[in-house]
Write a structure and sequence with these properties.
The chain is of the alpha/beta class. The chain has nine helices and ten strands. It is globular. The structure holds adenosine-5'-diphosphate. The site of adenosine-5'-diphosphate has 11 residues, from strand 2 and helix 1.
């Protein structure tokens, strides 16, 4: 994908202040950027910068204080069925008393489809994340990685235009994490899906992204949008070992370190 694809999401001047008066905490200020069809964009920034707040505001799970979000040119006024979200905590997003298949089928509850069709689609979604044969397993019978695959299958079954992921692999062991990164890339490429992913892992951001939105802190603003010119084909060994990968990682790390120092200096001045 490149930025000549049509714009899918337009994020304009998003600001968010929690609380009012002396308790007011301005977390986001004037966040503005576009995300294109089929683009993989990661959001990174110092811890506590407001990455989760930004995802919640831009998916309209939570209102922003100012600004607007357009999806395919139309203003988003609330959560949209065209946007699916995967959270970090799969243990809380899956229903422990439901099998993998039933957990995935939950996303189709409002569609009023025949039971056989729901079953077919759920099984297909599970197969697409490598879980064919695990349909009747309960979450507690599955590893963390498998549970997050179920959550991804549930997010994909509605065929969203945009997949939003909030630190989806943060609680997953390192080896499985690499597999899930590749699975996400494969799904994104094969469906030409737009993906926005929050991560605190800079290597993960560089590996996955077409572009990285680097946020500053106190309040969060868009510090820089880094173009990740590593080509469409990514490989856990060759991509991560390339010279360009190292350069991009150092650049993003430098930006985050800088914004951490600026944020610290601001707090000391108060
Ligand atoms: P990040 O995801 O970058 O770690 P968050 O968006 O979780 O950052 O949090 C950014 C800031 O907003 C923090 O100072 C946090 O305390 C504050 N915050 C987050 N959620 C709420 C909330 N629901 N009410 C009040 N303050 C919040």
């Amino acid at each position: 994908m490149n930025t000549s694809s049509p714009v899918r999401l337009t994020i304009s001047d998003l600001s968010k202040t929690y609380g009012t008066g002396s308790a007011a905490n301005e977390v986001l200020r004037g966040i503005t950027f576009d995300v294109h069809v089929g683009e993989f964009v990661c959001l990174v920034g110092p811890s506590g910068a407001g990455k989760t707040t930004l995802l919640r505001c831009l998916t309209r799970l939570m209102p922003s204080t100012t600004g607007q979000v357009l999806l395919d040119g139309e203003k988003l006024t609330g959560p949209s069925s065209k946007i699916s979200i995967v959270f970090q905590e799969y243990t809380r997003s899956l229903m422990p008393w439901m099998t993998a298949e039933k957990n995935v089928a939950l996303a189709l509850t409002n569609r009023k489809l025949p039971r056989t069709e729901v079953r077919r689609l759920s099984r297909e979604a599970l197969a697409s994340v490598g879980l064919a044969g695990s349909e009747t397993k309960y979450p507690w019978q599955m590893s963390g990685g498998m549970q997050q695959r179920v959550a991804i299958a549930r997010a994909l079954i509605t065929e969203p235009e945009v997949l939003v992921m909030d630190e989806p692999f943060a609680s997953i062991d390192a080896q499985t994490r690499l597999e899930l990164e590749d699975l996400t890339l494969e799904l994104q490429r094969s469906r030409n899906m737009t993906v926005m992913l929050v991560t605190h892992d800079i290597d993960e951001a560089v590996y996955l992204s077409d572009r990285i939105v680097v946020l500053s802190k106190n309040p969060a603003t868009v510090q820089e949008i880094v173009n990740v010119d590593l080509g469409a084909e990514r490989d856990q060994f060759t991509t991560r070992e390339s010279h360009r990968f190292g350069e991009l990682r150092s650049h993003v790390l430098g930006l985050i370190r800088h914004s951490q120092e600026v944020a610290k200096a601001k707090v000391q001045q108060l």
